[in-house]
Write a structure and sequence with these properties.
It is built from 4 helices and 5 strands, in the order H-E-E-E-H-H-E-E-H. Strands 1-2-3 form a 3-stranded antiparallel β-sheet. The longest helix is centred in the first third of the chain and has 18 residues. It binds zinc ion (2 copies). One zinc ion binds next to helix 4.
């Protein structure tokens, strides 16, 4: 449609332009890969938390790595030990997951925001605004 003639003003709106071509390949950053890992495996990673350690699936193989953040970040993958920064995509992914999973005010286990229940006013054990997991909410009469 190069000739947008003025003689045809009632023309229906042109179809949406095709999606732009993918941008030229750019080097994927660690943050990108961590985000991909997080989106695909956030739930798995969050639920794997035991005794300070998360299990993080490899983005590229069937391997699963052990990651912890304290006292210092650690990952069992090769990148982590080869890299100079003491950081890898698995550690990055765990940081993202932790931000998305605050601890329950009752039991201290971590949950996704959507699973937590907010304690209301006038509760004897919790402050208004405290977030509880469903189990604790039931146990303490918040639900
Ligand atoms: Zn790693
Ligand atoms: Zn709880």
């Amino acid at each position: 449609m190069i000739d947008q003639s003025l003689a045809q003003p009632a023309q229906p709106a042109p179809p949406a332009p095709p999606a732009p071509p993918a941008p030229p390949a750019r080097k994927e950053t660690r943050a990108d890969r961590a985000l991909t890992l997080y989106v695909e495996h956030a739930e798995t990673i969050a639920l794997s938390f035991r005794a300070g350690t998360y299990k993080v699936p490899s983005g590229t193989s069937t391997a699963v790595y052990s990651v912890r953040l304290v006292p210092t970040p650690y990952c069992s993958c090769r990148d982590f030990h080869a890299g100079p920064l003491g950081e890898c995509k698995h550690v990055s992914a765990v940081r993202v997951v932790r931000k998305a999973t605050p601890p329950c005010a009752g039991c201290g286990r971590r949950f996704f925001h959507r699973e937590l229940v907010e304690a209301g006013d006038g509760h004897l054990t919790f402050f208004a605004g405290d977030m509880l997991c469903p189990e604790c909410a039931v146990a303490h009469g918040v639900l």
